[in-house]
Amino acid sequence: MRVEIVTIPDCPNRDVADARVRRALALSALTDVEPVHRVIGSHEQAVTEGYQGSPTIRFDGTDPFASVGAPTGYSCRIYQTEQGLAGVPTVTQLVGAIRAHRTR
């Protein structure tokens, strides 16, 4: 599985996203998977890629948290979590997304 954490420059949630993704991978027995980091450099690139905000976490190129019709662009992203709105999905949400991705 390829795991990609895509951010805009200086994303304040980059490190939290990395830590949570690594924890979710470990809980999913995927300790051999190393997240790859990539930076979106412009609004144009964000729109071309259908980027819904920073950070975006992709499993094999798929954004499991993408919302149909959500705006794309060069911006921060907000996730709905069990605790309310947050800048990064929870570890529980990430584990669920990994499990769903592996069974499709």
Strand and helix map with partners:
Elements: E1 3-7, H1 14-27, E2 36-39, H2 43-49, E3 56-59, E4 79-81, E5 84-86, H3 91-102
Parallel strand pairs: 1-2
Antiparallel strand pairs: 1-3, 4-5
Structural overview:
This protein is an alpha+beta fold and 104 residues long. It is built from 3 helices and 5 strands, in the order βαβαβββα. It has helices at residues 14-27, 43-49, 91-102; strands at 3-7, 36-39, 56-59, 79-81, 84-86. β1 (3-7), α1 and β2 form a beta-alpha-beta unit. The longest helix is centred in the first third of the chain and has 14 residues, at 14-27. The protein starts with a strand and ends with a helix. The mean pLDDT is 96.
Quick overview:
This protein has 104 residues and is of the alpha+beta class. 32% of the residues lie in helices and 18% in strands.
Query: Quick one: biggest sheet?
Result: 3 strands, mixed
Stretches where pLDDT falls below 50 for ≥5 residues?
A: none
Number of helices: 3
Classification by helices and strands = alpha+beta
Query: Proportion of β residues?
Result: 15-25%
The dominant shape is: globular
How far do the termini sit from each other? 13 Å
Number of strand segments: 5
Order of helices and strands: EHEHEEEH
Considering DSSP H and I runs of 4 or more, what fraction of the residues is helical? Answer: 25-40%
Read across the widest sheet, the strand sequence of neighbours is 2-1-3
Q: What's the mean pLDDT score? A: 96
Radius of gyration: 13 Å
